[in-house]
Description:
TIM Barrel
Amino acid sequence: MSGSKRCLIAGNWKMNGLLSEAEEFIAELRENPAPEHVELALMPPFTLLHPMNRPLADKGVTLGAQNVYYEEKGAFTGSICPRMLRDANCHYVILGHSERRSIIGESNAQIRSKLNAAWLHGLEPILCIGETLEQREKGITNHVLAEQLAILKGAPKDKPLTVAYEPVWAIGTGKTATPEMVVETHAFVHEELKRLGKDCRVLYGGSVNPGNAKELMACEGVEGALVGGASLKADSFMQIVEAAAETAG
Ligand code: PGA
């Protein structure tokens, strides 16, 4: 299944999840009805892609990865290439997550190479962008986001893309942007994407949970969520999906 619905709830498991936990998650997921207007996706760690592929597909959940390397194959110890992700039936790949930008030191140039490699092999990147608290307080949020989106300059127009706006200060902190902030920033991101010829879906991310999902998903310009912590348990993930279904319907 691939991104045919406009509203997407994507779970980014980060460096969490053992096989036993994945099995438990899937068993719980099976008890929930599939939503009508919302696409579900999960990005478990690489080790769980193959075992989760079939059971998730049966439930209509799209599979994705959290990262990819841009080379085709060969002597790149520890790396995973786009063909391997396709082989595991991945449709999505998260690129430019703030944890990779700040902890691993990934640059915009590297992210651009990964975008190209993902597109070459038919993957849909979920490109993450976001400002730090310091940048927001300095009033340079839009400038930072424009710079992160500038890697899309000259990118092919017909390739699939989803963007996730995730304020860095809201990731894993329990803090969320106010609805006003979300509406304003999403409007800017949509405008900038149009200017770059990439009129694509934009998700919100950063401490999305069952308690705030409805308010966040109702914000103008928000077409789903990239969910970290709250996607690790099937019940909280599905509560977010339900909240999105109410606003997407
Ligand atoms: P969080 O993570 O929901 O745990 O804040 C979101 C993300 O990093 O994509």
